[in-house]
Design goal:
By secondary structure, the chain is of the alpha+beta class. It contains five helices and six strands.
């Protein structure tokens, strides 16, 4: 519904910065939810739904919450429904998933497109960096056998290494 509304309003997403796009899409989601409120089951949390749709439309989908978590140092998307994270040095199977391979592909394209890079069958692998410096590696079919894969290696936001004083040895 949000995409249909953007099309109807002839929204030029290419001319907006990421904050402006996020705000515009958020308003469109609010409008869509207003018109669809009767169709949404009562057990659905509207706030969570809104965040999920916003992240899927302009962010990296379900990875947004993992990227915001400072304890997560690596995210490994082995398939749309097979995601692992490294947290506090431990490898953990995540309970989040993308809705499909095409949703993973959209997230990959949102990472590489602003960098002027491309990923397709003729160039099925890309290494890149997110704006925060995190390293990204993406591989798609035909190299990736189970669908698009994505690995994001995050770095600490602040210096967490203890200071070491210099000691002279005589």
């Amino acid at each position: 519904e949000v995409l249909r509304m953007m099309d109807l309003k002839r929204t030029d997403v290419g001319s907006m910065d990421s904050d402006e796009l996020r705000q515009k899409v958020e308003l469109l989601i609010d409008d869509a939810l207003e018109t669809m409120v009767a169709e949404i089951p009562e057990n659905i949390d509207i706030t969570e739904l809104k965040i999920s749709v916003l992240n899927e439309a302009v962010g990296l989908g379900p990875l947004e919450e993992l990227l915001a978590d400072d304890e997560v140092t690596e995210i490994m998307v082995n398939a749309f429904d097979d995601i692992y994270i490294e947290k506090r040095g431990l490898l953990i199977k995540s309970d989040i998933s993308f809705s499909s391979d095409s949703a993973v592909m959209s997230a990959i394209e949102r990472i590489v497109s602003p960098l002027g890079r491309r990923i397709d069958e003729s160039s099925p692998m890309v290494d890149a960096r997110l704006p925060d410096g995190s390293r990204v590696n993406a591989i798609i079919p035909p190299l990736a056998l189970r669908g698009p894969t994505l690995t994001i290696r995050k770095f600490a936001r602040k210096n967490s290494m203890p200071m070491i004083s210099s000691v002279s040895v005589h």
